Amino acid sequence: QKRKRQGTRQRPPRRTPLGGIGKDLVLSHMDIRSEQPSDFEAIRVVHAASFPTAAEADLVDRLRADGSAVISQVAAEDGKIIGHVMFSKMSAPFRALGLAPVAVLSGHRRKGVAARLIKEGLRLAAAGGWQGVFVLGDPHYYTRFGFNVEAAKGFQSPYAGEHFMAMPLGGKTLPACAGRVDYAPAFAGVE
User: Fold this and answer.
1) What are φ and ψ of residue 123, in 5° steps?
2) Other CB atoms closer than 10 Å to residue 140's CB: what's the count?
3) Nearest-5° angle of CA 125, CA 126, CA 129?
4) Which residues does residue 74 pair with via DSSP β-bridges, in sequence order?
C-alpha cells in the first residue's frame, strides 16, 4: 500500500510592523512623530533612564529652551514615549546639524527604534535644506546611516577624532571639507 507523501511546505517569514523579519522586532504599534509639549516630561524620563546621569535629559531641555533644537522626534508605542532623538544647529561653514542625543528605553532596544528615529530625523533635515549632519558616536553603528569618519577629519572640533563623523545631505559630498564646527552652546555643560 502506497502512502501518500506529505511534503513540508515552508512558510514565509512573518513581516513585522518595522518591515523586518522575525519575532524579535515585533512592536504592537509604534509611531515616529515630532515631539509635542505634552511629551517633554516623558522625553526627560527616557533620557534619564538611558544614561547614568541626568546630563542628556538636561541637554535636551537646554537645547529646546535656547532655540537650538531643530528636529525633535519621538517613538511612541501604544501612546507611550519609548524613544527620542534631537538634531540641533551647529556652527559650521555650511548649514549643519548635530545629531544628539538619542535614547530608547531599555525594554525597547535592539528592535530598530533608534534607527527609525535617526532615519526620520535625517529625512526631515534633508527636506529642510540642511546640508550636513555631524555625530559623535560608534562608527560601527552610525556608518549604516551614511556617516563617515573621513568626512569629518578636516574639521576642527573639540570632539574631532575616531568617533566624530559627518554625512552630507542632498549631495555626495559636504559643501566644505574643512573649517571649524561647534555644537550648540548647550553642549558645553555635558561631559
Assistant:
1) -60, -45
2) 7
3) 90
4) 33, 84
Q: C-alpha grid cell for residue 174?
A: 559636504
- Look at strands 155-156 and 179-180 and give their pairing: parallel
Residue 1 has pLDDT above 80, yes or no: no
Distance CA 16, CA 48 (A): 29
Q: How far is CA 69 from the centre of its chain?
A: 14
Alpha-carbon span 114 to 88, nearest angstrom: 17
Specify whether the CB–CB gap between 96 and 140 falls below 8 A.
Answer: no
DSSP SS3 for 94:
coil
Express each pLDDT in 93-145 by its tens digit: 999 999 999 999 999 999 999 999 999 999 999 999 999 999 999 999 999 99
Pairing of β 80-89 and β 179-180: unpaired
- Cell digits of residue 19: 518591515
Specify the DSSP class assigned to residue 184: -
Question: Could you read off the pLDDT of 145-165 as tens digits, one per residue?
Answer: 999 999 999 999 999 999 999
pLDDT, residue 4, reads: 43
Q: Is the pLDDT of residue 89 over 70?
A: yes
* AA letter at 19: G
Q: Which amino acid, one-letter code, is at 156?
A: Q
Instruction: Quickly list H helices, 85-174.
Output: 113-127, 139-142, 149-152
